[in-house]
């Protein structure tokens, strides 16, 4: 093959169709079609549908009646929406605060080559293999105020009204979310850490930097884009927590853990108000988009830039 | 038998059910029973009801080979979704099984089910053998739109006799006695009342009784009829206040807000002696019998109707719960199919079906069914349920089923907040007044 070495000045960013880079057999844009078709059918079409539904009145069984801005007025004037937004934000913020440091530490640990690392890695990943519903049911049973772990073992500090107290219930949701997703983000960080060239650490060692100094001066800065990727997944993902909360607390006690997705489900499928439920869905989508774009901005304009220049 | 299956697993279940509802079993082949006079009948699957329903249809079909009933059975949540879709598409069955009340009202308002008032007038024997109270949820705007069927399930105050004996106290005969018992049980480290508060409708049963005992049936009657500010009735405010007083006095088990009724943990608290009393549907008897070891067999389970409130206007004989299950006839069915359906209605709750229901621990909604209960091993409880149902002048329907789904969801939401004390009685009434008639 006669591919030009990347160090040579190459002002053309994308290879022209038919070039050797594309495999030499014409355009490959068709390869994107299956994903594009799937995304259009299952991503864009429902999105447009939900957007249109938010301007209608529909009780699932009856006819869809146009209702103008009624649903939006109902939803935006409802204090429950603000409350749900606040709950969603709390879950998002706290689960990010808990997950990110722990995931980085575990990821860095797993990326090294210590003894028992493989065994521990398998143990860490178990929560990721379980379904959210199964995890929630298990935790609900463990935290049951009368038949749970605390009551059975007789340990005072475990005998709290974990899911019946508004503050504790929110804490439990954050804990269970973190428990499930830390393994996933550790995996991302492990991959990130492995890509940091060892020559950097060797140079640091020669300069006399200790382990902690190496972590803060090399590992963390080099993980910048990994952190942004992982944070995007955490933050946008936390908008959609539904099954976990629904099984664990059903939005309760009262409405203490009623996040946007739970609120949406209750309006749509319990109260048969598809219009307002669709409006909440649109708000959810907008929140997700804004957050994802905002986080991308954090990483600067050219995320594709190499961080390894000069190595 | 559980009151209903709660959708607890995931949104996927709902989506799955919705997909199943528009699935491949083309409605064309199930909406008619094949022959001209055939009728289709959709109802719930699952024990113990399924075999009894199947048996009733089989016996009818054997006796009427020319105009058959075709039975289709669905799981509870799937049935609700399938029925909604079918009505929307005009593909509903001839005979529609339901819960009466708010759900039936929405069909009536859309002109989707037939008025059966005249038929019942012409066929007095069919009507007269059923409990009069069972016609409540079948009656919309003074007209009967459904045939009451199957069994009666009142809400009952269960208590653990052993615990009462230990403390040398007797079951409460009034609200005052309930409030007196609360500190006594709490001092003995036994929860006065078990409650699966996360399920929300369990909390609602307390309000249903207190509203009735304090202000009589008209309090909720006004709400049901959509009168403005009906939730602000002084009796309603009093009932809501009393409920919160009981919560503040630690009347309910520690952590009740996170206990679900569908896990039966609330019932376990009662039969394990961790709680002294529990307000629950009569179906809980079967659950405690099955799961409580020898608790029920040793006669430790006590049961009574909810006591009166001193100075209250309501009759302490009144009860709430499910007065029956309901069969309606679709308006869009052919006249022949409608005739078949009516013939089928007349055949329902024959001696065999009554015996079948009694075997499942249910009391059929037939006057004089008590004579048949004696042979059952659970005769005492069944006779008690029969007594409650036949003595009740008012058999109120569960509120969440009496109201429209939209109002019911707001109600349950506010009940949850009332029980966590994040809102007070006045705020509750204001929130609910806003959705009256919706």
TrEMBL record, chain A:
This is ABC transporter. It is found in: Cell membrane. The keyword Ribosomal protein does not apply. Belongs to the binding-protein-dependent transport system permease family. The keyword Membrane applies. It comes from Actinoplanes couchii. Residues 85-295 form the ABC transmembrane type-1 domain. It is a multi-pass membrane protein. InterPro entries: ABC_transporter_permease (IPR051393), MetI-like (IPR000515), MetI-like_sf (IPR035906). Keywords: Cell membrane, Membrane, Transmembrane, Transmembrane helix, Transport. The chain crosses the membrane at residues 30-55, 85-111, 118-142, 162-182, 225-248, 273-295.
Automatic annotation (TrEMBL), chain B:
It holds the Pfam family SBP_bac_1. Transmembrane segments: none annotated. Coiled coil: none annotated. SUPFAM superfamilies: Periplasmic binding protein-like II. It comes from the Bacteria. Residues 1-20 form the signal peptide. Keywords: Signal. PROSITE patterns: PROKAR_LIPOPROTEIN (PS51257), TAT (PS51318). InterPro entries: Bact_solute-bd_prot1, SBP, TAT_signal. PANTHER family: ARABINOSE-BINDING PROTEIN-RELATED, BLR3389 PROTEIN. This is Sugar ABC transporter substrate-binding protein. It comes from Actinoplanes couchii. The lineage of its organism: Bacteria, Bacillati, Actinomycetota, Actinomycetes, Micromonosporales.
